TrEMBL record:
Keywords: Glycoprotein. SUPFAM superfamilies: Immunoglobulin, MHC antigen-recognition domain. Residues 217-290 form the Immunoglobulin C1-set domain. It comes from the Eukaryota. This is Immunoglobulin C1-set domain-containing protein. GO terms for biological process: immune response. The keyword Ribosomal protein does not apply. The keyword RNA-binding does not apply. Pfam families: C1-set, MHC_I. One of its GO terms (cellular component) is extracellular space. Belongs to the MHC class I family. Transmembrane segments: none annotated.
Amino acid sequence: MVDVNIQMVFSQLTHSLHYIYTALSKPVGLLGIHQFTAMGLLDGRMIDYFDSENQAKVPKQEWMRERLPADYWERGTRSRKSKQQWFKVNIGILMERMRQNDSDIHVLQWMHGCEGEANPDGTLRFVRGMDMYAYDGDDFLSFDDKNGVWVAPSPEAEPTKRKWDGVLVLKEYTKGYLENECIDWLSKFVTYGQQQLQNTSPPEVSLHAKTSTVDTDVLLTCLATGFYPADIVLRMKKNESVLTADDGLMSSGVLPNEDHTFQRRDHVEVLRSDLSAFSCEVVHEASAVTRVWGETLYVIFGFLICHSFLHCLKLCWRANIFLSISRTKLLLCPTSAQVCTLAC
């Protein structure tokens, strides 16, 4: 039997408010995947939602429904409809700029928001802001809040950077929104949803191995899921030595579940004969759990392969794995063949 040590892990209290917009160049014809979606996230939990099929901004938390008046949702719906048209126009501009045709699906995403840190008096202090765009899963443009300029990581984004840098009012508005208006809304939402935000859910941890393309190896995976809030530490170890990317360790990062909790999946390929030397430790705000591979180890044969963007979308949807945005880069399932559960 594995001993489970329970301990509380305290960290400095921070909150975040982010909005994520995703637009496809054309419909994909898959259930639940819309040509345009927009959502608000408070501390990683969805608080509002809009899609191109229903055409209405709606609350996703009961306290949002109770505390915000009808005209808030009406204004929000008008704003989302306006942004939907903006995305449609700009996907067309980017496709033309990159000499792309309509035979493939193209994706434009925008993520913006802010993080605040609690002061002793309970107010929130601005920590950082984010305003970034991605096209077909690659970084396209981001706002440097400190220097007040747009950053273009690719030549295709340079025309947009030059145009937006030349609009002083846009830069002033973006900086002002991130540092002031966003923090004001974040403070309101944290106050409104305070009771729910204080609730925590410990992770459920599962350990398994599946066959590798190399007969003598297996792919070891540690999955932590169902936890809230999103901050978590997951360590895979060999004889108590923590594995890193230099050892071939790969991580999904923290991803959202449909029930507003989170999941993280780490894996590494190792010799089958070394299985007993490996363990996985998960440390969360609400708990600390250590599990060790042993008699309960089971092997899953085969891989889940997607051979195209649409196929990957379909498999990810069926597997209840959602397209998501990491803290550092906007991610989409790739267009080349990948293991879907690792790519999405």
